[in-house]
Amino acid sequence: MAKFIEWVIRLSKALEKRLKEEIKKIEKEYKMPYLASWEKSARREGKQEEKLETAKRMLLNNFSVEQAITITGLTEKEIKALMS
User: Fold this and answer.
1) Residue-wise over 32-51: b if at least 16 C-beta within 10 A, else e?
2) Residue 19 pLDDT more than 60?
3) What pLDDT sits at residue 52?
4) Model pTM greater than 0.85?
5) For residue 27, is it within any domain?
6) In the chain, count of helices (H) and strands (E)?
7) How many other β-carbons are positioned within 10 Å of the β-carbon of residue 55?
8) Which of 32, 37, 50, 63 has the most crowded Cβ, counting Cβ within 10 A?
9) Distances in Å between the alpha carbon of 30 and those of 15, 24, 50, 75?
10) CA–CA dist 38, 1 (Å, integer)
């Protein structure tokens, strides 16, 4: 999605620089990084993938489904899907 947005909205180098400066000001003012909605979505997806990989490793190392649920926070259905 980000690539699409960048494709649709092309900024000149000067405007791109100005945008980055404004974002830095906002980040400093609110004491937190600015994240676009697509960045937030990508982070959520990454965290989910990490949980799934952890659960896979746990199952391969003879942890129980219940232990994988407790440690990863995944649902039983999500973990059992890894087993098939």
Assistant:
1) eeeeeeeeeeeeeeeeeeeb
2) yes
3) 97
4) no
5) yes
6) 5, 0
7) 24
8) 63
9) 22, 10, 29, 35
10) 7
HSE, side-chain direction, 13 A CA sphere, residue 34: 12
Token digits for 33?
């990084």
Residue 1 covered by a domain: no
- Please check whether residue 67 is in contact with residue 54, taking contact to mean a CB–CB distance below 8 angstroms: no
Question: How distant is the alpha carbon of residue 12 from its chain centre?
Answer: 29
Both tokens of 61, joined, read: 């190392």
Residue 65 lies in a domain: yes
Coil, strand, or helix at residue 73? coil
Number of residues that this document lists for the chain: 84
- Pairwise CA distance, residues 13 & 59, whole Å: 50
